[in-house]
Amino acid sequence: MNDITMYSTETCPYCQRADQLLAAKGISIRKIRVDLSEQAFAEMQSKTGMRSVPQIFIGQRHIGGYSDLAALEQSGQLDGLLHA
Predict the structure, then answer these.
(1) Running DSSP on this structure, what letter comes out for residue 42?
(2) Is residue 66 within 8 Å of residue 18, measured between CB atoms?
(3) What is the pTM of this model?
């Protein structure tokens, strides 16, 4: 199973939705809180080119945000990525 990393903030509703979607699948997430660390925010920006959260990685693959994760789930591709 691939490791899941999510750059997030505590109050982001899309971060919470992504967490809920993955938790419903029994998947644990490594969360990196960018609201607590400027270094973590800079790291996220460097890796993704984005300033918004969540930014989700499955293994080394950048998935994007919650809507991208939800689209993968709806298309049936998410489980394959999680278990690759």
Answers:
(1) H
(2) yes
(3) 0.94
